[in-house]
Amino acid sequence: SLPDFSKPFVLCSDASKFSLGAVLMQEDENGFQHPVAFASRKLGPTEIKYSVCEKEALGILFAITHFKNYLYGSEFIVYCDQQSLSKIKTQKDPTSRIARWFLTLQEYTYKIIHKPGRLNFMADYLSRAKYPKEDSENDKEIHEVHAVDADCTEFEFKLCSVPTEELICKQKNDSYCNNIKLKLESNFEFSPKSPKFFIKNGLLLCYRNDTGRHNSKAKLVVPQSLVHNVLQLCHDNNSVAHAGLSRTLKRVKINYFWHGLYGTVKNYVASCHSCIQRRGFSKNSKAPIQKIPTADYPFQKCAFDAVGPLVTSTNGNKWLIVISDYFTRYAEAYPVQNIQSSTVAKVLLDFISRHGIMETLHSDRGSNFLSEAMMEVYKKLGISKRHTLSYNPRSNGVVEKLNKTLIDSLSHLVTQNQENWCEQIPLALMAFRNAYHRTVHEKPSYLLYGRDIVMPYDIIFSDPSRTYSDTPSYAQQLVNRLQSSFALVKDHLERAADDNTKYNKELPKTKQISVGDLVYLHTPRVKVHTSKKLAMQNQGPFRVVNQFSPVVFEIQHINQPTNKQTVHLNRIVKVMERKVFPDVHDDEINPTSQNEIVSQNNMPSEEEIQKLYPPYTLPYKDLGDDQQILFRINDDTSTPTIPPVTNVSDRNQSSNVIQVQAPVIPPLKTPAVLTQRRCPYDLRPRDINGFVTNK
C-alpha cells in the first residue's frame, strides 16, 4: 500500500547467517498491517562472523537507515526476534560495536519490541533469500585487459535494418554484383555450375543448393563492402558464440552468397582473436628436442630444484632441496624448513664444501634461485647461472627426473602419517646412488668413488677383489677404473643426447615462427576465483621481436611495449593474419578462352603503344622491373564495359590474382597495361612481344 504519513509506521527486521531483511508496514482502519516497502541485503565477509545478537542489531541499523526518508521525524515501532535488544537502552555494558550502532540511531524516535520469529515471518523470509555469489572489489585481480568492440551491439541493429535502397546501392558500386546484373540484363548464358542469379525489387539474389536442404531459399549476393559485417553477425555475435568453421559456414550459406565464400569464412574463423585465446594448446605440435652440451668431468655442471611443500616433518621441515651432477648423476638432498634465498645459499655452500665449485648451475625460474642475493653468491663463486624458460620444466630434466625417483622411494619408506620423511632421505639417496643409471650405464657412486659401495645385500658375499696388497696398487687400480669409466660415461652421454634428437623425426611438422609474426602465449595459470574450464588459454597478442635459437624467442606485447618475455616455441600460438578478400570475378561467370589472349601477329607495334598509351611501371618486384604486360579484349561490335578498379593499396598484396587498369577503350584491338596484381580475366604475364614470361 502507499504510505500515509499521518499514521505511525511499523518496522520489522530480522537477520540470518548470511543476510538481513526488513519490512516497512502501516495499519489500516481495521487494524491489519499492510507492507509499504521491502529491503534486504547480503552480509559481508566480516559481518558473517558477528554473533547472533550483533547480527540482529545490525539488522535494526540497516532497516532504520534504509527507510530513513519515511521514519525521520516521526515515532515508530521496531519489531525483532532478539529479546535482549528490546532492553538495549537500559543495558549497562553493551558491546562496543552494538553501542556504536545505537549511538548513530539517537536522532530517531523509536521503540524496540520483541516479536517471536514465527510471527515475524515476512522479515524472516527476506533474510533467508538466496543471493548470487559476488566477489568483493578487493578480491578482484586483473591479469589482462580484453578489448571489446564498443560498436558491436549498435552494429548488429544497424546491419539487421539495412534499407533495401542501401543494399541496391552497395551492389551497384560492387564490380562483381554490377557485372552480373549487366549480364542478366543482356540475357547472358551462365555456366551450369554457377548459381542461378535473378533480380527482385532491384536486389541481386541467387539460388544455390549448397546447404544440403531440398527447399533452398533465395540468397542475397553480398557486396564486398558488407562481407565483413555478415561474418561478424554469423561468427562474432553473442547468439552464435564464436562457432567453428563448419557451423559458421553453414550459417552463412543459408542466407548469403559471394565469390570465394569458403576461403573468406575459413580465414575469418582461423584469424578470430577470441577463438585463438580460447583455443587449447596442441600437444602434437611440439618443438624439436635440442641437443644440450654434455659435461666433461664430475661436478662441472650441476642442477638443483626444490620439492614441496611436503607434510611438516617431526623436525619441522616442509621442503626438500635436491642437487644433481650432470656427469655422474650423483645426487644430494637437503630437508629444509623453507626455500628462502638465505636457506638456498646455505645448502649450496654445504654442497660446494664437499664437492667443489661447479662451472655451471642450472635451475628453474624460482625467485629463491634468481634473487639479487643469490645472483651475488653466484658471481662471487664464479658460477655461470642458467635457468629454464617459464612452463618448460623438461629443459631441467636431470633434476626433475631425480625428484620423481626420490619421491617414489620415500613413498615406500614413510609411515602412514608421513611425518618421518626426513629420516628416510639418506636411505632413498643410498638406493639412488647405488643403482645403475640408464643414461650413464653405471652407478653414480661408482663414478664418484671409483669403487662399489658395500650395500647390505653384499654382506653375505665377500668379494676377493676388494682386498689390495698395498696402497699404490689400490691407487693405480682406482685411476684405471675411473679413466675407463669416464670414457664410457662421456660416450654414453653423447649417445643419449643423440637418441633424444632422434625423436624429432617422429614429431609432426614444427610450426614456423619468424621475427615479426603475431602470436599468442599459452598461459595455463588463471586468475583467482575463476575456473580454468572457462578461462582463456592464451594471452596476447604479442609480436616476435627476436629469436635466440630454433626454439627460444623473445616476444613483446602489442599494447604494452614494456612487457617482453623470453619463451619456448611450445608455448607460442601463431596468429593467422586476417585477409581482406578483394572483389573478384568468378571464373564460372566470366570464363576466358585462350583465343582472347593477344597473339603475336595481332599485337600492335611498340611505337604505336608508346604513342597512344604512356607506359605504366609495375609496382611489384616479382613481376620484373619496369616490365609491361599486355592483353586485349575481344573485338566486339560494341565497346566492352570494364568494371571500375577499386583502391587496393591497403589490402593484402600477396594475392596471386591480377588486377588491371585500362585506359579509355577504343572499339578495336585495345592494349591495357598491368598496374596491379589482380585482373578479372584469365591472364598470364607476357613480354612486349606477346610471349608468355616466367616472371
From TrEMBL:
One of its GO terms (cellular component) is DNA polymerase complex. Residues 294-452 form the Integrase catalytic domain. GO terms for molecular function: endonuclease activity; hydrolase activity; nucleic acid binding; RNA-directed DNA polymerase activity. InterPro entries: DNA/RNA_pol_sf, Integrase_cat-core, Integrase_H2C2, Integrase_p58-like_C, Retrovirus_Pol_polyprotein, RNaseH-like_sf, RNaseH_sf, RT_RNaseH. Keywords: Endonuclease, Hydrolase, Nuclease, Nucleotidyltransferase, RNA-directed DNA polymerase, Transferase. One of its GO terms (biological process) is DNA integration. CDD domains: RNase_HI_RT_Ty3. It comes from the Eukaryota. The keyword Nuclease applies. It holds the Pfam family Integrase_p58_C. Its EC number is 2.7.7.49. This is RNA-directed DNA polymerase. The gene is Tf2-11_65.
